[in-house]
Amino acid sequence: MSDTPKAPKAPRARAVVDLAALRANVRALRARAPRAQLMAVVKANAYGHGAVPCARAARQAGARWVGTATPHEALALRAAGDTGRLMCWLWTPGDPWREAVEADIDVSVSGLWALEELTAAIAGTGLTARVQLKIDTGLGRNGCQPGDWEALVAASRAAEGAGLVKVTGIWSHFACADEPGHPSIEAQLRVFTDAVAYARAQGLDPEVRHIANSPATLTLPEAHFDLVRTGVAMYGISPSPEVGSPEELGLRPIMTLSASLASVKRVPGGHGVSYGLTYTTPGETTLALVPVGYADGIPRAGSGTGPVLVGGKWRTVAGRVAMDQFVVDLGGDSAAPGDEAVLFGPGDRGEPTAEDWARATGTIAYEVVTRISARVPRVYLGETDPDTGTDTGPDTDVIADDTGA
Ligand SMILES: *Cc1c(COP(=O)(O)O)cnc(C)c1O
């Protein structure tokens, strides 16, 4: 075994994001919902994958809409040059209604307070806001309660009459779409169709009705309506093992997270490893130091459980995940500083997947990818779409250091 570091071939750690795979996933999802438009959900920095490049790639692959949670996320996309239909839904009093309307963003309204703030913000400007009314069909989170729907519809009609708003959509969100056959799915669909019918009877004429997230897009054609909102599936991750594996769903994970070993050393048996000394080497062995930790978004719950591919074999995190680093025990195998440790990827090089990390740490794959922090540079592959020739990024793969959303 050599102690001499190899020439650095990559930074300390990197999240390689395959935009060609994202485009293929978007096309696969569009084929699943052929009569609906598709909204690419890129909230939370595109679940950690990078909102701007992911939104751009999704639009190249035919996403007519892009969606975010907060207005700030939507405004940041516009500032980065995104054009086309864009919607955001998580509004808090004091948020930038007028800026959003000026930026041609569809805003979501879940209650009278929001409609009042919105109309006050644009009164006298000559602007007309595109508003999508959200009905709570059973999730119990945001959205207008069915009992308050009549009042919200009436106030929206009045605001339309005053030229302040145009109701472009009526929408809702599922609680259990990732559990096919769950009785709440039928119940939510019934409340939703009733709410749409009532609003139409009162004179609203929404362009789009939508309720389907990734699992409903994949399993529930009757929920597609005019638009499906896909997040996790676009990133190649199954909404839940129950819905199927990515491969079975025709999807491919687009993020590969890897790091370069920072140290490789022989230690005797009985050597403790990492804070708390919760792991002790069973005999003389080789320890490799992986220079990523919970500050990079690696779950501390992966202590003693997280899988990592090093030297062609799955290893398990030895001892605790620290803020910046963790250790794996290579047993009798050798490695050198600079060798690659793959935490997760699509799985076809034998590496673990985000789903494997979710299982090992008691969470869902959504969280595994979304929590990868801005300290890990994103490296984009496939920015040019060969199908359209659209080249909206640099010719060469870029390393983006500033990945904050
Ligand atoms: C996050 C989110 C989605 C996307 O959900 P996925 O399960 O990732 O497809 C759709 N709609 C709303 C309102 C969301 O908050």
TrEMBL record:
Alphabetically ordered keywords of this record: Isomerase, Pyridoxal phosphate
Organism name: Streptomyces luteosporeus
SUPFAM superfamilies in alphabetical order: Alanine racemase C-terminal domain-like, PLP-binding barrel
Compositional bias of kind Low complexity: 387-397
UniProt xrefs under Pfam families: Ala_racemase_C, Ala_racemase_N
Residue numbers bearing the N6-(pyridoxal phosphate)lysine modification: K43
Family affiliation: Belongs to the alanine racemase family.
InterPro entries linked to this entry: Ala_racemase, Ala_racemase/Decarboxylase_C, Ala_racemase_C, Ala_racemase_N, Ala_racemase_pyridoxalP-BS, PLP-binding_barrel
Residues annotated to bind substrate: R141, M323
Source taxonomy: Bacteria, Bacillati, Actinomycetota, Actinomycetes, Kitasatosporales
Gene3D superfamilies: Alanine racemase (3.20.20.10), Lyase, Ornithine Decarboxylase, Chain A, domain 1 (2.40.37.10)
Protein name: Alanine racemase
HAMAP family reported for this sequence: Ala_racemase
Encoding gene, per UniProt annotation: alr
Function: Catalyzes the interconversion of L-alanine and D-alanine. May also act on other amino acids.
Pathway: Amino-acid biosynthesis; D-alanine biosynthesis; D-alanine from L-alanine: step 1/1
Catalytic center residues: K43, Y275
